[in-house]
Amino acid sequence: MNSDPRLASAPVEEIPKDMQELVREIEAMPMQYRARLEPLMQRVVDSTKRRRRILSLVQEALSQLRLDMKYLVFDLEATRRERDAYKQSLDGGNAD
Fold first, then answer.
1. Phi and psi of 68, rounded to 5°?
2. How far apart, in whole angstroms, are the C-alpha atoms of residue 38 and residue 6?
3. pTM for the full model?
4. Closest-CA residue to 8 (of 20, 16, 53, 18)
5. Inter-residue contact 49 to 14 (CB < 8 Å)
6. CA 93 to CA 80: how far, in whole Å?
7. CB of 4 within 8 A of CB of 42?
8. Cβ contact 7:40 at 8 Å
9. Residue 23 CB: number of other CB atoms within 10 A?
10. DSSP 3
11. Could you report the per-residue pLDDT of 41-80, keeping only the tens digit for each?
12. Is the dihedral of CA 32, 8, 19, 60 positive or negative?
């Protein structure tokens, strides 16, 4: 029984365990049934991999956004401290 090389080439860690089991079960079926199910299964595997890639990209973007926000908050706080120090120096100069 030969299996579809596209299904076999899918890295195992990229698809969930239950889908891996389903792929193995479809590969074990007689050719007449497997021929009808493999294209459907391939579409499901492809969409699952695509969703995982998208999720990974979104997670990376969120991580970058969090880091950028930390830098912006730090910069804002530093700017406020500089402003307050400048105001204090002006007020101190006017009091003389």
1. -60, -40
2. 10
3. 0.63
4. 20
5. yes
6. 20
7. yes
8. no
9. 23
10. P
11. 999 999 999 999 999 999 999 999 999 999 999 999 999 9
12. negative
| Long-range CB contact pairs, 77-84, < 8 A, 24+ | none
What's the number of domains the chain is made of?
1
Q: Which residue has the tokens 């706080």?
A: 77
Structure tokens that stand for 91 in this block: 């007020």
Whole-number Å distance between alpha carbons of 89 and 22: 73
Cα separations (Å) of 46 from 9, 11, 28, 37? 12, 11, 20, 14
Nearest C-alpha neighbor of 23 from the set 1, 8, 35, 36: 8
- Domain containing 86: what range? 5-95
